Amino acid sequence: MRSPFLRISAIAVFICILGILSIYSNTYQQEGRVWQAIYKRQMVWVLLGAVFSFVVYNFNYRRLIDLTYFLYGITLFLLGLVHLFGDVSMGAQRWLKVGGFNFQPSELAKLTVVILLAKYFSNKSADDVSLRAERLDIFRGLVLPFIFAGIPMGLIIQQPDLGSGMLILFIFFVMLYLSNVKLRYIIIFLSAILVAMPLLWNFLRDYQKDRLLVFLNPNIDPLGAGYTIIQSKISIGSSGFWGKGWLSGPQNQLHFLPESHTDFIAATFIEEHGLLGAILLVLLYYLLIRQGIKIAARTSDDFGKLLAYGISMMLCAQVFINMAMNMGLAPVVGIPLPLMSYGGSSVLITFIALGILANIDRTRAVF
Amino acid sequence: MRTKTAGFVVIFAFLLLILSFFKLILIEGKKYKELSAKNSIRLLSQPGGRGRILDRTGNVIVDNTMSYDVMVLPQDKSRLDKTLGAIAQILNVDSRELRLKFKSGFLSQNMPVAVSRNIDIKKAILLEELKFDFPGILIQPHPLRHYPYGRLASHVIGYLGEIDRWRLTKLEDYGYKTKDIMGYGGVEEKYDYYLRQEDGGLSVEVDSRGNLKRVLGLRPAQSGKDIQLTLDLRIQKIVENALAGWKGAIVLMDPRSGEIIAMASLPNFNPSVFVLRYNSLVRGLFNNPGGPLLNRAIGGSYPAGSLFKVIVASAALETGKIGVNTTFYCPGNMRLGNAVFACWGMHDSQNLIGAMAYSCNVFFYRTGLLTGPQGLHEYAARFGLSKPASVDLPYEVGGLVPHPLWKKIHRFRNWFDGDTLNLSIGQGDVLVTPLQMARVMAVFANRGKLVTPYIVKSIDNKDISGYHARIADLALKRSTIEYIRQGLRAVVNDEAGTGNVLSQLTVPVAGKTGTAQAAKGQPHAWFAGFFPYKDPKFAICVLLEHGGPGKEACIVAKEIIENMVREGLL
User: Fold this and answer.
1) B21, A174: Cβ pair inside 8 Å?
2) Model pTM?
């Protein structure tokens, strides 16, 4: 496959198919039509995502520069709406109901922040063609972009969705680093976070504290917050080399593993397909992200380069955190596994991000 | 270049993931496989029934009925909440209460938890239908103790409760476990080892759909063994009816073997409140100052009063201190030093038979002084006083018959003749149980043999009375026995005898009344005797706590014997 778009699409669709199979596997026994239809809904989302991806692929990414603040505005507006009218589900207000569909603006916010920061840091200085970021002072190099990223981040943490908020913080750090901002600002940024952490602890909701404490020791609450981690580890650990076969993983089939079709879909998949499945899954994601990194590396346009890195690293971070969470190596935060976890917003946004990525490579060829 | 690091970070992150998967699946896999296996194994318990308790003719006193528990399989939280919500709706309770019960009863992921016990069968059927929507619900039928006669013989039977820590430490070696139900008091406790069922269990492996794949292990439930008592339910009913309204105890015993035919103690309790766990009622029973849980027939000790005169007479006759023709003069009281010891009447000159019939204190004061406290104590001990009668029921007390050394040790005082006088009429420190006095009467009924009372006739249809029946010959002189028997008969026969009310009966009765002074309030009323006189089949002892004069006890005994005759039970 010569075209990177085709390559990316093929890998993405393959991952999606694995995801749909897993969703089918752990919902087909649930009673009720809603559950039965859930894998069909995911199929619709994937098809819709592929269409969006194709549309975005044919949309010059440089026009995003002009649309950045508009996008940013929309994102903040939607996050605000969630605050006011959001659907409360599982103790958190994360969803917007739009005509029967639930939309999660925090997914959009991740992409928006990447685009915004890519635009901000890729401005050229007036007298020179090098990146302005290298010579920015601390206010413009650190504080101002942090405020930009911090507003959606704060709104998301307030929802409360600690995981997505932290992901935006991570994206901010990555963009800061890759845009050649002075190293000492980055050090200042990191030390500021370290200092702020104990203070921020008090702002966390009880369940968030629980989850962090449980992450440190899942056995303190084996039936509550630690239950998921323990069951997820059992699912993965017991799978063996070949796995237990599709539709016959007892852990998720007997509903020992909660959230087995969303955040813990990797555990579901690996229980049924074993170490082989795990390697396949990691390999697929690696190939996907490697495409992104390669595109970023060969793009000379600074905005495109930063954007491609940002999108790749965002995907990488999500995959890593989610899988680590499934293995009990990271606290349980609501980070879905891109393309696999059930959820329209995540699938759509990931497909759009991949479309942008492919378009960066396509447009680069035009230059 | 900073951008290069991005690529390295990605590679590093993914390598880390791969390595972690390797570690989790290949290195730690065995451990998680075991844990997973536990998740796909379900343990279903199969309760057995506790052994039944029957009376001597085979009538069921205690048996079991089916009751239903609602169990819920542990599952993920949202499904669990929905399941509990649905159960709560049917049972008409708060679902939060069920959730609390689930949390407190939770043992492990693969064991169902009981959230509600002893529901009625209609609700059980409704819940059974609910299973189609909520497969986590299990309706577990299990046998429940059932008392068809309510309070009847409640002290003999005892009650059931969860094993306590103290008993658990003692009984662990016999296979008792925490949360086991065991008997408390009565036959339920004493014979718990035989009565208790062995709960069976089924461990099954389920497939990924929760369907039964195969049975891994099965231990069939074993019901407990049935126990047959020596109690006669019909007589027991008569006895409890006669005692109704009083506080006290009655023992009816076969003097030839020691079989207890009836044993009643009032106030009593309804053992089913323990089974149904009416906690407030149970607490009320424990805190009740009347002591409804105390079996007064074996666990209550009272001053013997005039009943003790039988012992005094035996001791004096055996040791030759008095003879058949010995008479003492009773002027209505007796002086000892400066103290005056009263008799309840003036009896002039009389021999032993007369003294027993009229219960003359002065006669026995003098006889007691002649015999001496040590001799009295020795004979009391020979008749089985001052130690438990070793009936096969728990919490029997031994009572007390004092002697000079005892007084020195426990009261730090010397023994005076006044103490001997008090002892001679069964007052002072003398304490006996109704069962002990029935046993003493049995000696005169069977002409000289001390029987060991027992209440369990057979276990699982195997007669164990041979194991109980330890009959000791007291080696009393034939004349002593005959003479005292005549005295006991005179109590009833003589027109002025203290037990004369019993003479109206068609059955010849012999016995002795007692009016034992209590520390405060009315004296305790005693009657102990046997019937029919010639060839006794029953020894009886009636005690009315603060019942007044001994005549009251005679009236109760009369009612019992009357009814027994009417129902042809003699």
Assistant:
1) no
2) 0.59
Residue A69: how many other CB atoms lie within 10 Å: 12
Q: What span, in angstroms and rounded, lies between the C-alpha atoms of A311 and A64?
A: 14
> How many domains, in total, are found in chain A?
2
| Residue segments in chain B with a per-residue pLDDT below the cut of 70 | 1, 38-43, 75-77, 107-111, 203-217, 469
Which of B1, B24, B81 to substitute to test the interface with A, most A CBs within 10 Å? B24
A197, part of any domain: yes
Question: Cβ of A297 and B9 within 8 Å?
Answer: no
A-chain residues near B208 (CB < 8 A): 244, 247-250, 253-254
Q: Is A216 domain-assigned?
A: no
Amino acid at A5: F
Q: Write out the H or E segment, with its range, that includes residue B524.
A: strand B524-531
Test B39 with A251 for CB contact under 8 angstroms.
yes
**Cα separation, B521 vs A89, whole angstroms:** 72
Contact residues, chain A, for B77 at CB < 8 Å: 227, 258
Q: What is the chain B residue with the closest CA to A291?
A: B7
| A59 reaches B (C-beta below 8 A) | no
DSSP A151-206: HHHHHHHHTT-HHHHHHHHHHHHHHHHHTT--HHHHHHHHHHHHHHHHHHHTTS-H
Tens-digit pLDDT profile for residues B42-100: 667 777 888 999 999 989 999 888 888 888 877 666 777 888 888 888 888 888 888 88
pLDDT by residue (tens digit) across B255-284?
A: 999 999 999 998 999 998 888 777 788 888
Which two three-digit tokens encode residue B428? 């002072």
Looking at domain B42-130+140-229, its CATH superfamily turns out to be Penicillin-binding protein 2a (Domain 2) (3.90.1310.10)
Residue B126, min C-alpha distance to chain A (Å): 20
Q: With an 8 Å Cβ cutoff, are A305 and B3 in contact?
A: yes
Instruction: Residue A364: give the domain boundaries.
Output: 1-52+221-301+309-367
